[in-house]
Amino acid sequence: MKISELVAQIRKKKSFLCVGLDVDMDKIPAHLLQTEDPIFEFNKAIIDATHDYVVSYKPNTAFYEAQGIKGWQALAKTIAYLNTNHPEIFTIADAKRGDIGNTSGMYAKAFFEDLAFDSVTVAPYMGKDSVEPFLAYKDKITILLALTSNPGAFDFQTLKTGEDEVYKKVLETSKKWQNAKNLMYVAGATKAEYFKEIRDIVPDSFLLVPGVGAQGGSLSEVCKFGLNKNIGLLINSSRGVIYASDGLDFAEAARKEAHKLQKEMEVILSVN
Ligand SMILES: O=C(O)c1cc(=O)[nH]c(=O)n1[C@@H]1O[C@H](COP(=O)(O)O)[C@@H](O)[C@H]1O
């Protein structure tokens, strides 16, 4: 999907919400466990109930890999369901990959060709040649970790190397790479005070912003400096939306949570 198509969808739905499909077997409603494919049934119900308010879904592959072959099959079924029924929705494989070139090439093939995701999250730690195989896909988006939402972000990402912190080097260096227009960056909602400096370096890029909801990040704080002329933000919430209820009403409860976030976004967009 082209970024211009994502922007058009955001403007139409008045939403820049990304819902994380992080399916935890200990948290999904008990009645689904009796079905043939609980993970897919859960995802399908969540997608059906929330897609009006959502422009992107982000399954984190860890939750699927943890269930072995059945989990991977459920992931494949989920992405196929989205691509068939909601081709306008931007899909993110949250896999945080990155390795030596030929290995990264296989990761890229897995997520872009076999599973047909629009994008994948990639760790920048191994440098340019570990990211290039993802960027080689001209019609796909690579989402590079810059400043993550977790407390451990301060262990390495904010360390100074010369003038700049490591996360700034990631932004500055990667934006010079070939096909860098197909890069987005992860910036955690829990780090809102860094967004002005992030925007100074990458004014035009989209930022994937996890950490709203269960991790306590603030949507309005992120938007103060995070928005750009193309909106430029995808705000992710996973647990806060998909586990709003663990009862028979789980999908309806998720819809309400997604709608609440969408309404907040609509207000923000109306004054920006
Ligand atoms: O790449 C990510 O999506 C990500 C980066 C980051 O800095 N922090 C972060 O929480 N995430 C992911 O975003 C999701 C957040 O989930 P909730 O905290 O339940 O909303 C999880 O799938 C995380 O793995």
TrEMBL record:
Q: In which pathway does it act?
A: Pyrimidine metabolism; UMP biosynthesis via de novo pathway; UMP from orotate: step 2/2
Q: What organism is this sequence from?
A: Paenimyroides ceti
Pfam hit, one: OMPdecase
Broadest EC class assigned to this enzyme: lyase
- Record family assignment: Belongs to the OMP decarboxylase family. Type 2 subfamily.
Q: What is this protein called?
A: Orotidine-5'-phosphate decarboxylase
State the UniProt keywords alphabetically: Decarboxylase, Lyase, Pyrimidine biosynthesis
List, alphabetically, the SUPFAM superfamilies matched: Ribulose-phoshate binding barrel (SSF51366)
